Structure formats: structure tokens, C-alpha cells
TrEMBL record:
Pfam families membership: Flavin_Reduct
Full protein name: Flavin reductase family protein
Database matches in Gene3D superfamilies: Electron Transport, Fmn-binding Protein, Chain A
Start and end residues of each Flavin reductase like domain: 11-165
Protein species of origin: Clostridium simiarum
InterPro entries given in the database record: Flavin_Rdtase-like_dom, Flavoredoxin, Split_barrel_FMN-bd
Family in the record: Belongs to the flavoredoxin family.
Recorded coiled-coil stretches: none
SMART domains documented for this protein: Flavin_Reduct
Source species taxonomy: Bacteria, Bacillati, Bacillota, Clostridia, Eubacteriales
């Protein structure tokens, strides 16, 4: 029960203020803020599901690398960096420098995590699908996709998770 309470608390923080979604493909590393996502179970595996619009620089990186990390702060210390990483694109600026954040190696992936966060997940993409205008509810299609730019939903098998040492 305590463990469940802690997952619940972590996910509330995630939806409220966001987390860093980071991926590395070759020499390219990028991070962006996300606040949509679910942690659950599918195919008998722990799975972190994320929603990334096609226009995001991060989208192509994850598509190619097949992996991502989630770095989740549980307090307000990352408010500013989350703001920068949720409004600037890695196509245009060095977000790490601009946001004043550093990466550190993850345990099991090439993609790093963001230093100074509280909870980390390392994920390998095991499935993905594109939100389809034909089968999504008309309400959501109107409210969320007026300009198209549909999300791709990436399912990442959680291969490691741990708390930070800040
Ligand atoms: C609090 C917050 C939550 C966000 N959540 C998402 C999300 O779940 N999915 C998404 O595609 N974009 C989300 N964004 C927008 C991206 O973080 C933003 O467009 C970012 O600049 C993309 O960076 P990139 O082009 O370097 O990948 C969010 C932004 C903020 C501020």
C-alpha cells in the first residue's frame, strides 16, 4: 500500500508540473518537458506510456533511438528548467545550457538522465502508434488537434527505475 501511495504521489507531480523526457540518438541528445503519460502494466511488463507530438525534435530522436528516460522532480526546484525545456526546441537552442541543467549517464541505456531529479525511469520502446483522427472522439479532435500535429504514443518498457541522490 505504501508503495502504491508513492507511485500515486509521483504521478500527480508528473501531471502537475512535468518531467524531463530525454533521448539520445548517435551524438544527438535532447530533452523536453512532458506532463502526459501513464505508468502501468502491459504484456506482463511495467510500461511507461508517453504522448509526443510529431513536430517535437524529440519525436524523431526517440523514433530512431528506440529508447528514452524520464527524470521526475518532486519539488519546485526544476520549475524554471522545465519551463525552458517545455517552450524551446532543441532544434534551435542548446536547451541544457539555456536551462542550466546537466545530464548524467543512465544505468542501462545510451540516453542519459537529468541530474538533480528525484525519480528516474529508463525505458525501451516496445510499441508505438499514431493518434488517428478517424477513431478519436470528435471532442478531443477539436479541442486538442485543431492544427493537426497528432501525438505518437510511445510505450516504453521500464527496464530500470530508481531515486536520485540529490
Ligand atoms: C508542462 C508542459 C508539459 C508538456 N507536455 C507535453 C507532452 O506530454 N507531449 C508533447 O508532445 N509536448 C509537451 N509539451 C511541449 C514540449 O515540451 C515543447 O513543445 C518542447 O519545446 C519540445 O521540445 P523539442 O522540440 O526540443 O523536442 C509540454 C510543455 C510543458 C510546458
Amino acid at each position: 500500500m505504501e508503495a502504491l501511495k508513492s507511485v500515486d504521489k509521483n504521478m500527480k507531480n508528473f501531471h502537475k508540473q512535468g518531467a524531463f523526457l530525454t533521448s539520445k540518438n548517435g551524438e544527438i541528445i535532447n530533452t523536453m518537458t512532458i506532463s502526459w503519460g501513464n505508468l502501468g502494466l502491459a504484456w506482463g511488463k511495467p510500461v511507461f506510456i508517453i504522448y509526443v507530438r510529431k513536430s517535437r525534435f524529440t519525436h524523431d530522436i526517440i523514433d530512431k533511438s528506440g529508447e528514452f528516460t524520464i527524470s521526475l522532480p518532486l519539488d519546485n526546484s526544476m520549475k524554471k528548467p522545465l519551463g525552458v525545456c517545455g517552450s524551446k526546441s532543441g532544434r534551435d537552442v542548446d536547451k541544457f545550457q539555456l536551462a542550466g541543467i546537466n545530464t548524467k549517464p543512465s544505468n542501462k541505456l545510451k540516453s542519459p538522465v537529468i541530474d538533480g531529479c528525484d525519480v528516474y525511469f529508463e525505458c525501451k520502446v516496445v510499441y508505438k502508434h499514431n493518434i488517428s483522427p478517424e477513431i478519436i472522439s470528435e471532442d478531443i479532435n477539436k479541442s486538442t488537434y485543431l492544427e493537426g500535429d497528432y501525438h505518437t504514443v510511445f510505450y516504453g518498457e521500464v527496464i530500470d527505475y530508481y531515486v536520485g541522490d540529490k
